[in-house]
Amino acid sequence: MHPDSDVASPVSADPELADLARQVREGVGRLNWRMRAERDLGGPGPAVLAVLSRLYRAGTHTPSELAAAERLQPQSLTRILAWVTERELVTRTPDPDDGRRSLIRITPAGLAVLREYSIQRERWLAAAMESTLSPTERQLLRLASELMMRVADA
Fold first, then answer.
1. What global pTM score does this model have?
2. How far apart are CA 70 and CA 116, in angstroms?
3. pLDDT score of 37
4. Number of neighbours of residue 53 by Cβ within 10 angstroms
């Protein structure tokens, strides 16, 4: 998909930089889509994994904080929390500062589910890189991944 110049403002005054931005966006998007497709279809869905990942990375949250952080509707989060609580992937405890709220925390079982999902994706990615890329291309990809992390942190 190439944006028409008369429909949207230019991405950058530098056409090469604009083209690079498009290529990186498309490559990251396609790789993300493919890695999600490699998950165990019997396992948790993307929204559940996103909630578990958020709890792992950012720690304990209230349900409203989780909904806002993951841009989920409260009804959707209620279903997700019921699913993960039933499987003991998270705990819900009353908030000591406000008894009307609960605090959601990931459990060791939740961490194990999250780690298994990561291992599955990394296993697929390693195999794809091994079968597709030369050693030199792998070195370039290592450099590119470091650069993408720098850009993401900018």
1. 0.72
2. 21
3. 81
4. 16
